[in-house]
From TrEMBL, chains A, B:
The lineage of its organism: Bacteria, Pseudomonadati, Pseudomonadota, Gammaproteobacteria, Enterobacterales. This is Alpha-keto-acid decarboxylase. Residues 4-109 form the Thiamine pyrophosphate enzyme N-terminal TPP-binding domain. Its cofactor is Mg(2+); thiamine diphosphate; a metal cation. The keyword Magnesium applies. It comes from Providencia rettgeri. Residues 385-531 form the Thiamine pyrophosphate enzyme TPP-binding domain.
Amino acid sequence: MKETVVEYILSKLYQLGIEDIFGVPGDYSFPVNDSVCANSHQRWVGNCNELNAAYAADGYARIKGVAALSTTFGVGELSALNAIAGSYAERVPIFHLVGMPPSLTQKKQRISHHTLGDGNYDVFYKMSQHIVCAHAIITPENCIEETERLIACALHERRPVYFGLPADYAVKTVIKPFHHVVPLIPNSCSETLKNIIPLILNKLINSQQPCILAGSMSLRLGVANTLQTIIEKTKIPYTTLFMDKSVLDETNTQYIGMYTGQILTPQVTSFVESSDCVINIGTILSDFNSGCYTSNIKIENIIHIMEDKVIIDGQCYNNISMKDVVLALQNRLLSLPTSSFNHHKSPKAQSLGQPIAVETNEITESYLYPRLEKMFRPNDIIFTDTGTFSMGLAFSLLPKGASFHSQSLWGSIGWATPAALGAALASPSRRVILATGEGAHQLTMQEISQFARFGLKPIIFVLNNDGYLIERLFCKEPEYYYNDVAQWNYAQLPLALGCDDWYCKKVTTCDELNEALQAIETLDTAAYIEIVTDRYDASKYLIKMREIISSIYTN
Amino acid sequence: MKETVVEYILSKLYQLGIEDIFGVPGDYSFPVNDSVCANSHQRWVGNCNELNAAYAADGYARIKGVAALSTTFGVGELSALNAIAGSYAERVPIFHLVGMPPSLTQKKQRISHHTLGDGNYDVFYKMSQHIVCAHAIITPENCIEETERLIACALHERRPVYFGLPADYAVKTVIKPFHHVVPLIPNSCSETLKNIIPLILNKLINSQQPCILAGSMSLRLGVANTLQTIIEKTKIPYTTLFMDKSVLDETNTQYIGMYTGQILTPQVTSFVESSDCVINIGTILSDFNSGCYTSNIKIENIIHIMEDKVIIDGQCYNNISMKDVVLALQNRLLSLPTSSFNHHKSPKAQSLGQPIAVETNEITESYLYPRLEKMFRPNDIIFTDTGTFSMGLAFSLLPKGASFHSQSLWGSIGWATPAALGAALASPSRRVILATGEGAHQLTMQEISQFARFGLKPIIFVLNNDGYLIERLFCKEPEYYYNDVAQWNYAQLPLALGCDDWYCKKVTTCDELNEALQAIETLDTAAYIEIVTDRYDASKYLIKMREIISSIYTN
């Protein structure tokens, strides 16, 4: 059968497991929209706007590994850029299909809608090139090779790629290239690999107190399971940083809890920083991921195994992939007797304990986070926005298989609501919990209507503390009114947005919260709970963070 | 008094008439946020998200001439890009103030939040450069000169400019330059100007049937009043294109109605296209602004007076500003006797006439648009999204002083809701009417909460035709489900969004619509009316447009 350019690309994406295409339709992208609707194995997810669509694709890809986004020229693609940049930063592969005006319109430099009015049809393509790892304008002639190249780059770098699709080319039949060129993806240098493995093993086996730092890149690059096997064999204790929470199972006895530099849990900090061999597998020590740069591990005590390099004793070995290094390590470690590894007594990860209500019964962090921790079930998918809520909730200890998602490097508020939608579509059998602050929720909240539209049943918590609390804590004058947000009646939103049968509650006391959480246990509908707290109620982590952060913002 | 960098910039913007700063706060932009809140003559308008903020700034600038937007690094600025590009395309000057990480953080290439994690702090600045007419990273040393330059460029080009503000520099005291360089803005070439005026006058005075095409650039460049004076003196008939509607008063007897190429109103088309001297003052013949390229004026019969050039008899004269040309023409024309100008009998602009209800009493275009035309009052400000609604409503004849705003070149749906907010803040004494389709409204609808927050009383019409009708009409299979949108209960939205005392109605019959419109006349609150029509009910203009448009999209 003869395939069109769009059909070819969509079928290749389907082979990768992409069953949903997120986006907003538009005339220049009708070929993509038409082809998705005409095709029986993929579904069009028409989001409320393009930013939300791209966030939803990001959430989908965090669960399924990859995702696709369709936007129209100019107006559509630019609205998605913030989300695409976030996927680039946080290593989430998104295939961004951009419908462009027909080639002749471009060639003739016609003044068309969705252009700057200057006949320039390259400008938006150029803007996107800064935040994708590969890009191409697709023609019938280059379609097969360019699609292969873009897919290979996206999978290798775990980053977004850009397909520009002129509307006329998109519906033309794909032309097979005469000389099919297979895309070149760098392989590990076998020599370097051979040299580096003994160095790592030597350090590890001679270590008195080894420790593994499991980073989110290990999950993105598909080596988390191998890592889990290594940990089970060697019994090496492991920790994660904030951004990497739940990359490995938190119920394992070797899990020592989250490492936050000097901010919280001194027993974890003390263990990690006194370790003579910390093996970091794919985490980055950004500000919010290193306790505001308070992490203090000596260079000689840490081995960084990153996507394409290893750093050991302060020396960098390039051109070796994390996957190859971790697989080689696994092979060597599994053949050693268990007694080869020393184990200093390591701390055990702590749960948040019993919820403690204050005398007034108002909801405070001493009740809220321990109580939510208790409601988590195995395999739950939890999405949180960067803010007050995540900086409390992240310290809950998760049940087996549960995963916790935040956007700690890019930190774009509003991300979590559509991202949770994407995750729910990616894995309809798992329970999806969205925990967002009301300030963040306001950016993208219309997307909750899509949960109802697609028959999904998320549990949504909106923490209403009357403004941007994290900003109140970090800025010089907390009561400046730029930290206020418009006052909404949150619990009424789902109904207005067509979520007709949802369980919606506004809770202001611990008892009300407890009641709502008990009700949720037996419900077969989605739930939307507005949790009202004092405007300054914050987790211990956030309070401590406040103490050190002001010095960073002013250097 | 010593001023900081941010204080200096804000005071310069205040001198231009900017009393409101739109935006979303963020830690890197705290200096801007703080300074606005600390300053007694400017107001912080905290929008729900950055795209909405930038649209609101665009709406504000369409009323006041200029506007300011404040966003934070990366996450904030990128979310605003679609709107900034729209302002660039449609010639609306926006001062985009972007809070950046402190200079030392940048210099040290620290891995901070809101970055791509690669230590690159230029990337977002580079992305914005494609869609602003000038840009700078501001330091205490360059602040005075760069601020002058950016303001001069924005005012000259009527386009957005970018101020990058590293957080540490932003709060430092401005340093006066030793040699103050005044920004160079091109002047008209006096020789060309001297030569071109007689050419234009000669053609005009010898014309048997002159006609003026009044474009939105004449309004942006502040020559619309001069143009009105010329028209009143010479009695030359005038028309506008879709994008330029209401640039000149529509109650004037010389107004002949909208010119839409071959689509509608053949009497206007016939008059314009048989004119031997069409003077186009600042309109562009884009697809949607030329009846899908069906406008057919012979090159020898049209004089284009554009922002920086004149095209006459197919020959282009550069380096002369529209303002200088129009002022020179005014001076010469006012000194001539009225009898110097020939006047062919011109058509008179037609109102939409009486609303006609169909037998079922359901709301159709034959009732809707004439009925809404009747409710318009002098000085109303009307904002419409590109779509079904605007393509009917634009053919209403407006009362004196009323202005009609759409985004016909950029055409980003969702723009109108926040833009109407910006306009209402810019001119609280005028009545603001928002006419949007439900598909467009879904993109940005949270912004209606800001009307209530700021005590504004807009009248909002949401046309609910069960999906993206304009797309159903233009795509190959109207019932493809990508043209569906989530089903909402629109009339319940304002209450959920904190608009507690609004008059909200869903109307499905002509009688209900009429009743609601009558109720609005006596109300002292805002109104939000969901107007339900059949999913294929469209204006005559849109139906005709459909017939010719498919050939354009496929060339």
